[in-house]
Amino acid sequence: MREYRIAAIPGDGIGKEVIPAGLTVLQRLARLTNEFRLDVTTFDWGSDFYRSTGALMPQDGLHTLQPFDAIYFGAVGDPGVPDHVTLWGLRLKICQGFDQYANVRPTRVLPGLKSPLADCPPGTLDWVIVRENSEGEYAGQGGRSHRGHPEEVATEVSIFTRAGVTRIMRFAFALARSRPRKKLTVITKSNAQRHGMVMWDEIAAEVAKDFPDVAVDKELVDAATVRMVNRPGSLDTIVATNLHADILSDLAAALAGSIGIAPTGNVNPERRHPSMFEPIHGSAFDIMGKGLANPIGTFWSAVMMLEHLGEADAARRLMSAIERVTAAGTTLTRDLGGSAGTAQVTEAVCDALT
Length: 354
Ligand code: NAI
Ligand code: MG
Known about the structure:
The protein is of the alpha/beta class. The chain is 40% helix and 23% strand. It is globular and about 55 Å long.
């Protein structure tokens, strides 16, 4: 029997609702397949931990997580703690500390769900966004001087390194090659951002030479939003910087039906450290504690985690259970136009596994 050690970090808000739901589904799946076991350890890190200890995770938190095979993460963010404190104190600490430089975000319109786009027949919107996850606009470089004075100045410096851009391009080209259409769109802003983004374009063109079978094109990030809305079928695999992809992937999730269904993997491709899988949504203050959160993004993230662990059959089985539930349309949360709660969707997916 294969065994995997999973670190579960529900975090804050609806993270505490969707991660237990995801673990329920995963354990049911493991029992049914009877081929692997999941040894799950749950960590109570997040804003409550911060209120009692002064930090979102213990000082040696990364050391604690290192031996795990994967991390299953909910969301972090609390109405009483500034967002930059929560984000940098937990999620980014793990992403950067474990060099999870490839953030992979698949988006498609699941069976039975409807895109808000008027013209989007099934199969048209099927994208994977690859987000650079270690540097760029979120490198954390910058500072503030003369705080509170009229002459106050703040800088937020984007960092692009040849090594960082090259590795994310190689990852994105390889992913594009593995998909049927073998098509990659490089998102840029090299008209206005004339240093980092010009190097980004140059490196994309260099890496493209090693992937002659991948069709590649280039789109400015602002034009990309228009193309996503007007010509969704013209896109397949997309690579973008940390900030650009952050924004485009929220739009992508909305175009696929709801932010509540979208999954992501923060991947350390060399597998020197555990990778982390999470829904792309946040802690959703407006619905937390009510049992209304859509757990599908968390379930789909579990599919990505299983793929990463090498459990391809189990991953497919879970994905088709999710799709059976969306296709039936009878057990959907409010964000998808239904009236079910987290628990009912979880039960429906568990039933669909059998
Ligand atoms: P959000 O994703 O938490 O919520 C945006 C909207 O989508 C809300 O109306 C919410 O109710 C809805 N929504 C989100 N997930 C849903 C789900 N599973 N089911 C049904 N509806 C859902 O984004 P927001 O409001 O900008 O941020 C709230 C907090 O979360 C902030 O503190 C923010 O910093 C944090 N955040 C954390 C992230 C993470 O940990 N990865 C990602 C995004 C935001
Ligand atoms: Mg975001």
